Amino acid sequence: MGYIEKKVSGGDEMSQFYSCAITSQRPTRFKFKYQEYMTSCKRLKKRLHDVFTELYRRGVRRFYVGGALGVDLWAGEILLEMRRQEEYQELEIVLVYPFPGHDERWDPKSRERLRHLKENCDQFVMGSKIVGAQGYRERTAYMVEHADCLVAVCDDEPAGPSGVEAVLRMAEARKLPVVLIHPDTGKVKCVIL
Fold first, then answer.
1. How far, rounded to the nearest angstrom, does the alpha carbon of residue 193 sit from its chain's CA centroid?
2. Which of 20, 61, 117, 177 is 20–30 Å from 77 (CA)?
3. Cα 56 from Cα 40, distance rounded (Å)
4. Hey, is 142 helix, strand or coil?
């Protein structure tokens, strides 16, 4: 099964899904922060790639990416790269912005990376018209409501400003399988909440 350590009962639950939402804590909580050259960040990106590959193998074709700095942007770029390969031609990327102008304070390089992702995704959705925390919550709720499973990058303490705890509660309410990736150790496990 690759990097996905299965922690579910019964049949092969991950094989019956079509779509996946991706969520994460803010990289300010990670040991490597936003420093993509660090070995830990490279390992996290490799784990994301491996998990996406496994989910695709199991039938997931649509991936919802949230459009935030850090994991959202990295996941979108990984998925774009995968889609360029012959074996992933059916892969769809849905970019869900939290609200208009959410990236106005980003540095130019990050804004360019997001623009590239937006121009090359299959679908672009504005999650909310409300600026601020409520816009982020509505964006995330949209993604979880449209997904059959969830990939969450979070440490062992999901509480905090990223809202991952709220996302995990939404996934639990919908009984979605969740692939958890620890940002610092790279450990991956699949659970039914």
1. 17
2. 177
3. 24
4. helix
CA 126 to chain centre: 17
Phi, psi of 6 (to 5 degrees): -85, 130
Distant-in-sequence, close-in-space partners of 41: CB < 8 Å, separation ≥ 6: 30, 32, 35
Phi, psi of 142 (to 5 degrees): -60, -50
Distance CA 19, CA 134 (A): 24
CA 156-157-162 angle, 5° bins: 120
pLDDT-derived band of residue 192, with 50, 70 and 90 as boundaries?
low
Contact 124, 97 (CB under 8 A): yes
pLDDT digits (tens, 9 = 90+) for 45-99: 999 999 999 999 999 999 999 999 999 999 999 999 999 999 999 999 999 999 9
